[in-house]
Write a structure and sequence with these properties.
Radius of gyration: 15 Å
Distance between the termini: 27 Å
Number of strands: 7
Strand content: 25-35%
Order of helices and strands: EHHHEEEHEHEEH
Structural class: alpha+beta
Largest sheet: 7 strands, mixed
Strand order of the largest sheet: 1-2-3-4-5-7-6
Length: about 160
């Protein structure tokens, strides 16, 4: 019998695994844009550690292995910024990303009072865009990442969480 993937809040003990997983997962995004200076690849271990302490960070586990991660925090305008969603390449396409998003959305509403969710992804990241649209996000604009990558900004109201949970 195989193990099932569980979703839970990240702990200090998960920081190094999150850091390594993020580096692995965002290689394909970097290759898509020919830019290996994207923020998830430049982030430091200490910065990940700080996010685990201050933000809503969730992990997907397969046994003791962290195989997915997402982070979210409240912005000044009351929106919840969700980011750095990643799932180990060998487990992508099995709904883990959507489960991580739901966990982050739930915590951001219940613990932080988020009124809407906002995230962004590169304009060529079709797989990401399909996932986000499937769980109710809609394009609200574009922006330019600090690394120069054109980004699509997506949002959904917090009330929509109940409809996709």
């Amino acid at each position: 019998m195989g193990m099932s993937v569980t979703i839970s809040a990240a702990t200090e003990q998960d920081v190094e695994q999150i850091f390594r997983l993020q580096y692995l997962c965002f290689q394909s995004e970097a290759a898509l844009y020919g830019n290996y200076r994207i923020e998830p690849l430049l982030q430091t271990l200490d910065s990940v550690r700080e996010e685990v302490v201050t933000d809503c960070v969730f992990v997907a586990r397969l046994g003791d292995e962290v195989v997915g991660s997402v982070r979210g925090g409240l912005t000044e305008d009351g929106a919840a910024a969700i980011g750095k969603l990643c799932v180990h390449p060998r487990l992508q396409g099995h709904g883990i990303g959507a489960r991580l998003l739901r966990a982050a959305e739930s915590a951001l509403v219940e613990q932080r009072g988020a009124t809407r969710f906002r995230l962004h992804t590169g304009h060529r990241s079709e797989g990401n865009l399909r996932l986000y649209r499937r769980v109710g996000y809609q394009t609200v604009g574009t922006s330019q990442g600090a690394d120069g990558v054109p980004m699509i900004v997506l949002e959904k109201p917090a009330e929509a969480y109940a409809a996709t949970a």
